[in-house]
Amino acid sequence: MSKRVIIHPKEEAGGRKYWRSLGQLGDTPEFRGWLEREFPQGASELEGGDVSRRAFLRLMGASSALAGLSLAACRRPEKQLVPFTRGVEWSIPGKALFFATSMPTRKGFSPLIAQTHDGRPTKIEGNPLHPVSGGASGLYEQASILDLYDPDRAREFKHAGKAISAEAFEKSIDEIVAKAGDGSGLAFLLEESSSPSRERLRGEIAKKFPKAMWAVYEPVGNAAAATAAKATFGADVLAKADFSKANVILALDADFLGQDSATDDTRAYAKRRSVDGGNKMNRLYVVENRYTVTGGMADHRLRVPASQVGAFLLQLASELAVATGDVALKTVLGGAPKAAVKFSAEWVKECAVDLAAHKGASLVVVGERQRPAIQALGFAVNAALGNLGKTLGTVKVQAKPAASIAELAKALDDKTVKTLVIVGGNPAYNAPGDLDFAAKLKNATVIRVGTNEDETAPSATWHAPLAHYLEAWGDGRALDGSYVAVQPMILPLFGGWSELDVLAKFAGQPKPKGPELVQETFKQFTKTTDFATDWPKFLYYGFQPGSARDASAPTLNADAVAKLVAENLSLPAPDAESFEIVLTADSSIDDGRYANNGWLQEFPDPVSKLTWDNAAWISPKSATKLGVANGDVIEVSVNGAKIEIPALIVPGCADNSLTIALGYGRTAAGRVGSVAATTEKYVFGDAMVSGGFNAYPLTTSAEPYIRVGAKVRAVGRNYALAITQEHGSLEGRGGDLVREGTLKQYNENPKFAEKFGMDAHIPENRSLYSHPPLNDIHQWGMTVDLNACTGCGACMVACQAENNIPIVGKRQVLDGREMHWIRADRYFASGPNADGKYDQETDEPEMVSQPMMCQHCENAPCETVCPVNATVHSEDGLNVMAYNRCIGTRYCANNCPFKVRRFNFFDYNERQIKELRKWNLVSERGMEDTLKLSKNPNVTVRMRGVMEKCTFCVQRIQEAKIAGKAKGRDSADVRIPANSFTAACAQSCPSEAIVFGDISNPESNVSKVRSGPRAYELLKYLNVASRVLYLARVRNPNMKMPDAAKAAAYSQPKHPHGAHGAEPKHGGSQ
Amino acid sequence: MSDAVVSLECPKELERVPLVTSARKFPWITQAVSEIVENRTPVWWWVLFLPLSALALFGLTCIGYQISNGVGVWGENHPNGWAWDITNFVFWIGIGHAGTLISAILFLTRQKWRTSINRASEAMTLFAVMCAAIFPGIHVGRVWMAWFLAPIPNANAIWPNFRSPLLWDVFAVSTYFTVSVLFWYTGLVPDLATLRDRAKSRVVKYIYGIFALGWRGSNRHWRHYEMAYLILAGLSTPLVLSVHSIVSFDFATSIVPGWHTTIFPPYFVAGAIFGGFAMVLTILLPARIVYPKLDDLITRQHVDKMAKIILLTGSIVGYAYLMELFIAWYSANVYERAAFWNRAFGWYGWAYWCMMTCNVVIPQFFWIKKLRTNYIAVFIICQFVNAGMWFERFVIIVTSLAQDFLPSSWGHYSPSWVEIWTFAGTFGIFLSLFLLFMRFLPMIAMSEIKIVVPEADAHHKPSTAH
């Protein structure tokens, strides 16, 4: 951006002139000289002794009037603020505007509301009107705002590596289109999308170039699910579970609350998880090879290698076939191969009995990345349970089938493809390892439109920047099939083209200038007769009401399933010497597409709490066997493919099963995501490498996710892993910190969680300090329902986006300096061992998640110790931070029992991550221009040396208060209506676990939740009187299951209350 | 009454052991002390001073680096908001206790043996407090805003937070430093006059003359001097006890398990005296080697007495350590118990056992008189005490913060090179200042020591033995 120079226009000759003195009027040289001097010459008259009061005042007046014109040395540099010359419609300075839009994801479009300030989007929220979002949004939606402003995005149109103009690029495309004939030799490779406009353009391209190849590739897609559904139900459909109707759920390697989640699924599940309001609480069985957030929510969990899930399902199906007497299921099982391994008969049987007892209200979900035969068997089991059309429906797939990347690779090999158009994606990096796709790209002329100049870019003859979804018009279908709008919030920052722009050119149309292309689709789709009304409405709501596709009741084709099961159900026998490898999308950077997003890189995995890298998750037992500790690099080889990756011991993993996240090891992701990109040089010591390890070489087009028979050996090196939570055990403090009981306990005594741990012993609290009164009409408070929280972490990124929280880099995370204001504490918990100790490396602990943010204690320990009064209490119950006042003693953080205060150890906003330790006087300062645009203007960007922490989104509170006062005018009624706004974390939470509001207003949700029986205060014995209450978690174990006694045992009081006989050992009571 | 019953001669067994041995006379004392300043700078002085001042400068460079880049160049993190910085602060401020204790409390309690060591220990106190004051100053994130700590009346009516122990620290330490400087300087005045009178060069005479404030040794001067000295001793006495009590409030008034302990004030004061005396001996014992004449002034008796004080305060500290453990167990509080369990057997257990060995076990050797009067043994034991007292503060600060209430927030701490060299740099500052003090000021209070030799007694009969 060039510097703006403000030149005041010369005054017009004939106009009326305002002058300050005769000197100015005359514009004499003396006057000009006088202006330039620091002190007006007349000031020396003061020394002459002849000082009349009038003369003195006159001189002072002149001095101060001229101070603004002189070149004083000790002033801040001038910056010009230039108002809009004409007012922009709807734009009120300082007020945000909200527009509906939606974000493309590989499963469908996510309906959103974008907040914009002066024409720049700053925050994303879920679209509250849309049933899928309901106002909630996930991690990726929240983080997408940073992708928009990523300074490493492709900025130039390039031909053969040289920058060209956009017009030249367009002209080249025109030439290619003109020469393409019938399209033979032309191929397109795109990402999965449900955009009707894209489908329409595809049709037009197919008409123009009937022989062109249309390929779609998603490295972590749902191809297996589509195959299974097509075989089972005989149509291009995808299964859609309805968790709101399921009383008993069995998830088989299906992370439906985590990586495979949709906000509506999470919400539906959480609603049924509730014990309040007369809901019949659901029960969740999970069978998986590693802990997922879904596994963390389970009532019963079984560790099973992912390759054995089919065998488990087979055993369960046999039990169910007996229990239900279902003929179709028996047919299917008739031809099934025999499994080599048997699982706990009691576990499987009781689970089957429970499912069968809830016919039509049970649900078996099989992970989308299991083989089609296993998924089909899962459908058959659901059919036997009478769930089809009740808890399990199908939704029609929108797009016509396309070629796979393997077919495209073959065509490239055969040299039948001469021109390849790649829009988005990054196949040179993420194509299956056996295809050697990057090399094959050399066989064709590649035209690439991509977000970054990434690993695929060097293969491209033409490269053009791809517009972000907040920069371009578009449309799509949400997960429920409803028709949603994609509205741009800002012009493309780097002049990028959208996917539709590119396709329109190939369809022989001009590059659209506005929404005309989408409008055309809209007209066709809605068959509207009143476009002028319907189109703005569509944009206003962000979706077309009534366009959702209801899940239809499918019928099972038992023969087809039987055939698939008989032919394709492979049940590899477990082998104690070899490992299975489970390749998953990463919980933060997905398949690698978000690798250059700092918020996501620094987002700790919900289970392992690992940031900035991936690692091979391994069970404690397997790690002992291999002799590896955390961070020890292992070599994983399977069928000739080989990678090196550090091991990470994660409790709850199946033995002999490695879980490796895809998406890391990028070489051209940008400054944040590339390997070694965040190297921070140390004066003494090694440089720090981040970016992880590429696991795509292990994938094959036939077996993209689960590979068996891998050989693993330690290579004798160690790699630093930046984990945000060093310690995962509750140390026997479960009774105090994470209170949990069973449904039985809750039914007997809803207030079961009131007196746990220290709370059972403490006398009444008294404070030595007096505090200012809490006498505002509003009193802010929050509740966190541990029963609903899955630990997904959407709140963390939402908070980061809302509150301008910087990232700190891997080295700083290793040093324990991450800045998240809200974090999701994850504990592995188990009852005490025989020796009374609590061991975090037990094989099958329970996992609990606890969001932790500033508790806004009424007797805040941080406030009494701050020597400069930088953190004080407001009348409405906020523990507020005055950044200007803070000198950074860190005493407040030391005295915070919840350790939620975050200190700016370096100038994270102004310094490059790798230059934090470079001597300040020689390193560059300043934030990238685009990143400046991403900041929330209502929140201070903090400098180094100050403390910060959760403010309960005080900027939102103030905005609501001001609105209340403006509305109330001079009346006394300035109270903010209940539930009219909420904090960023609460707003994004898909399971509605976080509730924020005015606790002095009995109408507010938070008041109602606080008064519930499960509410408890953390560390109450300290008498900090926190404003955040937690709601105890309830598990619903099946008492007949063999592991029923384990549920919530860790949190229970060890001795019945009142019996204080034997004192337990150190640190290990209760 | 006959001569047989009343004898003016004191019986041999009741005779006091002389504080100055070899029956030295006034002129000898003046010469012995003044010549240290007046002789040519010895080579060993330069050999020590140059590397130590270089170390001091490097420490200051580290501080400059830290201030310009941020506290992040240290190893501190969440949850360890304090570590070496405050450890070093408490360590140095503790050392800064012996001097004023010797000069004020021992003065008021008429412990005459103090006279030969009080000047050097007071100087040591001042230098230690200077080193201590560096750390709270630089540990803050925005040093340039540290003036917010001062209660300056201002237009927006924001005052410091008078509830914060950190603010009490500011007042306590600055008061202590001011009073200590005044006390030290007041005691110096007669000796400065002596140096002025003996000076041969005009420039030196002039400089000492300015600082001697026109002292002529008149009766009036002495009267005022003794009054001022007594008043300052009275003012300093409560400060000796209050400063470290207030420093301990930084911890005791917090809610962190392991800090939140009512035993801290007496335990910290005892620890400070303990560590302070060890440092006095650490400095004076080598000084006696390079200046053998001082043997007659700082005698085995002095060393023996200081060793006894170390033994006493070390035992008090040991008692406090054990009492902390008992109270943690007796409280039946999970968090308190865990904090102390972790102290001994947790991540930093090695530091705890270092502390226990150095502070509790090793000083017990001072029960043996032979060791108390053996200079080498005393010097070695004092080094253990110096190290042990540093570890005590490290153990209190880091083990408590590293593992507090929520296990999710536990975190290891390790120092960075910047922290290590900053601490080393304060030793450079401390020792360089002490070397300068030895070169330019009388390191033994000549005027005071003359009062305790028998000659000063009006009833003294000059001995004819020699």
How would you describe what is shown here?
The complex is a heterodimer of chains A (1070) and B (466). Chain A is 26% helix and 17% strand. Chain A has 1070 residues and is an alpha/beta fold. Chain A folds into six domains: 40-79, no CATH class; 97-148; 157-221 and 402-541, Rossmann fold (3-Layer(aba) Sandwich); 223-396, Dimethylsulfoxide Reductase, domain 2 (3-Layer(aba) Sandwich), CATH 3.40.228; 581-677 and 686-723, Barwin-like endoglucanases; 734-757 and 780-828 and 853-1034 and 1045-1051, Alpha-Beta Plaits (2-Layer Sandwich), CATH 3.30.70. In chain A, a hairpin with a 4-residue loop joins strand 1 (97-104) and strand 2 (109-117). In chain A, helix 7 packs across helix 13 and helix 11 (327-334) runs parallel beside helix 20 (558-568). The longest helix of chain A is centred in the N-terminal third of the chain and has 16 residues, at 309-324. The model of chain A is unreliable at 17-21, 34-51, 59-81 and 1055-1070 (pLDDT under 50). Chain B has one domain (31-141, 158-454). Helices cover 66% and strands 0% of the residues of chain B. Chain B has helices at residues 26-38, 43-69, 84-95, 98-108, 118-139, 165-198, 202-211, 219-252, 264-290, 300-330, 334-345, 349-361, 369-372, 375-402, 417-440, 446-452. The two termini of chain B are 32 Å apart. At the A-B interface, strand 29, helix 27, helix 28 and strand 33 of A face helix 2, helix 6 and helix 11 of B.
